[in-house]
Design a protein that fits this description.
Layout (H helix, E strand, L loop, with lengths): L1 H13 L6 E5 L20 E4 L6 E4 L27 H9 L3 E5 L21 E5 L7 H12 L3 E5 L14 H9 L12 E3 L13 E6 L1 E2 L9 E2 L2 E2 L4 E6 L2 E3 L8 E5 L10 E8 L2 E6 L29 H13 L10 E9 L4 E18 L6 E16 L7 E8 L8 E2 L3 E4 L8 E10 L4 E18 L6 E16 L7 E8 L8 E2 L3 E4 L5 E2 L4 E4 L5 E3 L5 E2 L4 E5 L4 H7 L8 E4 L20 E4 L5 E3 L9 E5 L12 E5 L16 E8 L8 E7 L17 E6 L2 E7 L12 E7 L6 H6 L1 E2 L12 E6 L7 E9 L12 E4 L14 E6 L7 E5 L6 E2 L4 E6 L4 E6 L5 E2 L4 E6 L10 E4 L8 E6 L12 E7 L20 E2 L15 H4 L30 E5 L2 E5 L8 E7 L12 E3 L3 E4 L9 E7 L7
Parallel strand pairs: 1-4, 1-5, 5-6, 6-16, 33-34, 54-55
Antiparallel strand pairs: 2-3, 7-13, 8-12, 9-14, 10-11, 14-15, 15-16, 17-18, 18-19, 18-20, 20-21, 20-22, 23-24, 24-25, 24-26, 26-27, 26-28, 29-32, 30-31, 30-35, 33-40, 35-36, 37-38, 37-39, 39-40, 41-42, 42-45, 43-44, 43-46, 46-47, 48-49, 48-58, 49-54, 50-53, 51-52, 51-56, 56-57, 59-60, 60-63, 61-62, ...
Length: 1063
């Protein structure tokens, strides 16, 4: 009867999930170990380094689908029906109604790749059993996105030093690398760290045997020990295992199910764990032995695990229950939280609204002239970092807005509170980067640039500065990209870009730039690369071209995006062909590099074009010294490690040799092996493209005798490649043109240019304190072609600058008053010493100042230096945990006062023993000067930071000292302490005003530590006796319509970090 009951239970659970697909990985040399960790293989012809690393051997070469077909599996089918060390696992899954597949060695790991028939999006669970190769960046991203989107990941590791293919990577390190886990306290994204100590020491926590580990979870609701496939109370049989440590602080969903024999049920020495990441689940074990069914490749060392192990263990039940757990993630019913923002950046006709959520969610901004809104802009892309551009706004107009987000499961929307922004006065768009030529062919060129607001996209071009032609795109955008077509090969073209905003302001023109089209590309469709000493070959498909003096990569079995993740420095203009675009290589894909290969190149008429090459060895990259060198001679090649390959670059002296085999490279992940062709058209095409003009040069105060320069490096040709040298000059007056530049002082020993697009910095020393210096630069390539003059930037050499007065007592840094038992009071210690709470209390006074309640704080506790202390009502269940309790006391949700009192007796609202007090709501009668804004239900108000301490501004004015209400972000005594910021510098005498039509352009040097600038203006010298509201600017320039030109006006400008600097 027992067997019948169990079988009936399995059928009941299997039926609803019939046809769910499970994928076992075989792309990471899982076949190289003591057993071939695959579900089935009919061939053992995959040559690879394998255990015990004494050379290469032929290992299992599994196909995508096991044979015989799984449709023929019945309840009585033995696991030996398929040949693999984990075939029993797969057979049991098929019996339960699931479909199993293998991702074969020729496949690749992706998520969302419509060209990959075995993309992870097609499966519910992905199982990796003892992988041997490090995951690439794109593979790690794919796996994490798969799990986050609801997939299940089963990580089966082995002990440390279980590197079976001699590439210095074993499965514990591979999984830790995937999740960014590094220690017991830093357990990564899943909260699971496979224990490693970087030495080979059997007997430790990273390499042990535990033949009968039945120290299991005893909760009858545990899904792994008490799951639908039977009881796992017998535990696991472990041989050569590593344990794991888990940390709920890194992932609150992580849970242990089996511990080392004798271990307490805590977070250490765990042998089976599960977790959740996003919408998906994870199962993890540090040993493959329990999955070993004792059959497979007869050449491997096989052990009886699964259902054959002794000692009464339940390997099979635990693995099957865990697989079921992964197939059925818990439903998500929690709406997203807004963790940062929203904030707005405004222009005259547009605004960009940004915010962050704690999970991927859509983006909606409602806006209008009132808080009834009436208009909206949305994006249905699910992201955590949200950015929405609002267009077609009116200049100098206040708008109300709020943001809303719902997650992928439809939870939400979560809405922010109402906020406002005011558009600026009319001004033309500014070209903030570019224009740059990012790619050029014989007949096309792609031009890109960026403007500071949505604007039109137009390129004027021609063979002279008169232009005569244009290309444009309709609509408005900040990011502009236009492809010019129909160009003449080997021709120099002049161009400039033009943009106007939606208000009609503009057009803004860039300076003149040039590019040179290349020679016509060569069509090599039908050409063939042959392996001289075998029948292996590859014929290039129709539409394959290689530009003159350009490169073409033939990769074995990866997409271009995957290849670029392995070789991110490969130039974008490099041609690329994947020998396996359709997932079926009749001859095993090309090239197949195992050692002793010789290659030849033939044209479509079978004429030998290049080769034979030298015979190559595995694990190397062979790079031809010059295209015309004899490919059959060893002296013609540089032999380097395979990790030093240079796809898309490296050709030597050009001589018109034509198309040649330029590089041949092996790879530890054989799908990335490649052959590189180069089309040597000679050096007849002159280099006339200058480096791009630097347009973001910034000068920042450094010390009392130095300034720091920052800019984005241009390339050798536009933004591509690496330029040769910089010419940096400075002056005591603005550098407006080439004459000013040539007469300015030359800076000695400037840095060498970095690759195009790289941020660079340089310190200029020996300057005079309190003096303003103006800087500009030009960039040259090797010809030398010299760039246009950069923007001019300047700053004042200065000491630290103004500082606010330090605060020397505890502060109330955040409150939430929901009118229930989850009220929160957060304290902050702005000093550099801890402060004891002995004798302190939290007291509440009503809006009319009457006493409400008192809660004495724990006298044995203290607030750490530059740290926080969290006090919450009994109904609080959030994170982080409270340090102290308000009990059932609660404050009014409309108005009142919360005070920190240095007394454990009742006080009055204006008592002298009040250390700090926060009045909130408009009817509060005894706040510090003016009450702070009442936070809506669920929101809090947070105290502004302070430049001296990193947090805790205290001007004794609640309205000024607290930010607008927003979603809470509480901290407790265990939170990282605040960081001391740098001192805030001054703008000083760097401010310049100039006429800009009927308005005034203000420009100034940056102030050290300033995150924004406050501009005050008035018609008399003493206007700051009653200061007007400032104009707030995050950059160091502004066009101001409130200061008419040429009327005399007085201006005060202050840098702002969290407090204003001196003027």
């Amino acid at each position: 009867m027992k067997k019948i009951a169990v079988l009936f239970l399995l059928v009941i659970f299997a039926m609803p999930f019939f046809c769910q697909k499970i994928l076992f990985d075989a792309t990471k040399h899982e076949m190289a170990g003591n057993a071939d960790w695959v579900i089935d293989s009919d061939y053992w012809n995959l040559n690879m380094p394998a255990y015990p690393c004494s050379g290469s051997s032929n290992e299992a070469n599994p196909a995508s689908l096991p044979t015989p077909d799984q449709s023929t599996v019945s309840q009585s089918t033995p696991e030996t029906y398929w040949t693999g060390a984990i075939s029993a696992w797969a057979i049991e899954l098929v019996k339960a109604g699931y479909i199993v597949e293998t991702l074969p060695p020729t496949g690749y790991i992706s998520f969302g790749d419509v060209n990959n028939p075995q993309d992870l999006s097609n499966y519910k669970v992905f199982i990796m059993c003892e992988p041997q190769n490090q995951l690439s960046a794109s593979e790690k991203t794919a796996i994490l996105n798969f799990v986050s989107s609801g997939g299940g990941l089963f990580m089966v590791a082995d002990h440390e030093t279980s590197d079976r293919d001699c590439d210095n990577w074993d499965s514990p390190h591979i999984f830790n690398d995937l999740t960014q886990a590094v220690s017991t306290t830093q357990t990564g994204l899943f909260g699971i760290w496979f224990r490693v100590n970087e030495i080979s020491d059997k007997g430790g926590e990273d390499w042990f045997d535990d033949a009968t580990d039945n120290n299991v979870e005893t909760d009858s609701n545990d899904p792994i020990i008490c799951g639908p496939f039977g009881s796992g109370s017998g535990g696991l049989g472990l041989f050569g295992a590593t344990s794991m440590d888990i940390n709920p602080l890194d992932n609150p969903y992580v849970k242990a199910h089996v511990w080392r024999t004798g271990q307490s049920h805590n977070n250490l020495r765990v042998t089976f764990a599960t977790s959740q990441y996003g919408d998906g689940r994870i199962a993890a074990i540090g040993d493959s032995s329990p999955a070993d069914d004792g059959t497979g490749d007869s050449g491997d060392t096989l052990y009886d695990g699964w259902d054959k192990a002794s000692g009464g263990v339940n390997n099979k039940e635990i693995f099957m229950n865990a697989t079921y757990f992964l197939l059925n993630p818990a439903p998500d019913t929690t709406p997203p939280s807004i963790t940062e923002g929203p904030s707005s950046q405004v222009k005259d006709c547009s605004a960009a609204v940004s915010w962050k959520t704690d999970e991927a969610a859509n983006s909606i901004v409602e806006y209008g002239l009132t808080d009834s809104y009436g208009m909206s802009v949305s994006s249905q892309s699910f992201v955590k970092d949200h950015l929405i551009d609002i267009s077609s706004l009116n200049p100098s107009t206040q708008y109300h807005y709020r943001v809303l987000s719902s997650d992928t499961k439809g939870n939400g929307p979560t809405a922010s509170s109402d906020l406002t922004f005011t558009t600026s006065a009319d001004s033309p768009p500014v070209i903030v980067t570019g224009p740059s030529v990012v790619s050029v062919s014989s007949s096309t060129a792609k031009i890109v640039w960026e403007s500071d607001e949505p604007a039109t996209s137009l390129v004027e071009y021609g063979t002279s500065q008169s232009y005569g032609n244009n290309a444009y795109l309709s609509g408005y955008s900040k990011i502009h990209e236009i492809v010019i077509s129909g160009l003449t090969p080997e021709t120099t073209y002049h161009f400039r870009v033009v943009s106007s905003d939606e208000c009609g302001n503009g057009p803004t023109y860039s300076g003149d730039s040039t590019f040179v089209t290349s020679s016509p590309a060569l069509d090599i469709s039908g050409w063939t690369i042959k392996q001289y000493n075998s029948s292996q070959s590859f014929t290039f498909p129709q539409g394959t071209f290689i530009p003159q003096n350009g490169y073409l990569i033939l990769a074995r079995n990866v997409t271009r995006s995957q290849f670029e993740s392995q070789w991110p420095s490969m130039p974008a203009e490099t041609g690329f062909v994947n020998s396996n675009p359709n997932g079926s290589c009749p001859d095993g894909c090309f090239p197949m590099i195992n050692g002793s290969e010789i290659f030849e190149l033939y044209d479509s008429q079978n004429n030998l074009i290049d080769g034979p090459t030298i015979s190559i060895s595995a694990s190397n990259s062979y790079q031809r010294k010059n295209p015309s060198d004899d490919p059959s001679l060893s002296a013609s090649w540089n032999t380097l490690s395979q990790t030093s390959a240079t796809p898309g670059s490296g050709a030597g002296n050009l001589s018109g040799a034509g198309v040649v085999i330029n590089e041949m490279a092996d790879n530890s992940s054989f799908s990335y092996e490649f052959i590189e062709l180069f089309n040597d058209g000679g050096s007849s095409v002159p280099d006339t493209i200058a480096p791009e003009k630097v347009s973001d040069l910034a000068v920042i105060p450094d010390t009392n005798n130095s300034l720091k320069l920052e800019w984005t490096a241009p390339g050798d040709d536009g933004m591509s490649g690496t330029a040769t040298s910089y010419e940096i000059r400075y002056s005591l007056s603005p550098i407006k043109n080439d004459n000013d530049f040539n007469s300015a002082t030359l800076v000695a020993s400037p840095p060498s240019p970095a690759a195009g697009g790289t941020k660079q910095t340089f310190i200029v020393s020996g300057l005079t304190n309190s003096e303003v210096y103006f800087f500009a630069l030009k960039t040259s390539d090797e010809v030398p072609n010299q760039s246009a003059l950069s923007n001019c930037s300047w700053a004042l050499v200065q000491d630290g600058g103004s500082q606010p007065n330090p605060v020397n007592h505890l502060l109330i840094s955040q409150i939430r008053v929901s009118g229930s038992t989850d009220d929160v009071v957060e304290l902050f210690n702005p000093t550099t010493s801890s402060i004891s709470l002995s004798g302190y209390s939290i007291q509440y006074f009503a809006a009319n100042s009457n006493f409400g309640f008192r809660v004495n704080l724990n006298a044995s506790k203290s607030v750490p230096a530059l740290g926080w202390y969290l006090i919450a009502g009994n109904g609080y269940s959030g994170s982080p945990a409270a340090d102290d309790s308000l009990g059932t006391a609660n404050a009014s949700s409309t108005a009142g006062h919360l005070a920190l009192v240095q007394s454990t007796s009742n006080s009055s609202c204006s008592a002298s023993n009040i250390v700090d007090k926060v009045g909130y709501g408009t009817s509060a009668t005894c706040p510090e000067t003016s009450p702070a804004t009442l936070p809506a239900s669920g929101n809090s108000i947070k105290r502004k930071p302070n430049d001296t301490t990193g947090n805790g501004q205290d001007t004794d004015n609640n309205q000024n000292d607290f930010l607008s209400p927003s979603a809470p972000s509480f901290r407790n005594s265990s939170s990282p302490p605040a960081t001391l910021p740098q001192n805030l510098g001054v703008v000083g005498k760097t401010l310049f005003l100039s006429k800009e039509g009927s308005q005034t352009l203000l420009e100034w040097g940056r102030a050290a530590g300033a995150s924004e600038y406050h501009i005050y203006s008035g018609a008399s010298p003493d206007f700051m006796n009653n200061p007007p509201s400032p104009i707030i600017q995050t950059t160091n320039s502004a066009i101001n319509s409130e200061i008419p030109s040429p009327v005399l006006y007085f201006v005060v400008l202050a840098g702002n970090g969290s407090d204003e600097s001196e003027d």
